[in-house]
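ESCALATION

Customer reports they have been waiting on this structure for their group meeting. Please prioritize. Original submission:
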Amino acid sequence: MKKIEAIIKLSKLDEVQDALGEIGIDRMTVCEVKGFGRQNRHTEAYRGSEYTVDFLPKIKIDLVVADQNAERAVKVIIQSARMGEIGDDKVLISDVEEAGCALAI
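Update from on-call: job pushed to the front of the queue and completed.
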């Protein structure tokens, strides 16, 4: 099994979720996160005042898939999340040795 972690722009979540659903992946965890990469710090204006933006809001998607579905899932995420700009998707893939679920006793 593979764990896929994807960092995407907020506006792309619905597109990515729909695209993954089309290939049969309908389970994922989604978190709001903040970060920066090459775009680093920049200044923006809000109501006439300038301020420095250190971290940009993003969405992190975590999903675990069978080995044979991993490559396809990554391609779908990249295709549906890409905007052609700095700060586009980041996708990390790692092996999962064991997975299970906790049951209420």
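Sent to customer with the following note: The longest helix spans residues 67-81.
Escalation resolved.
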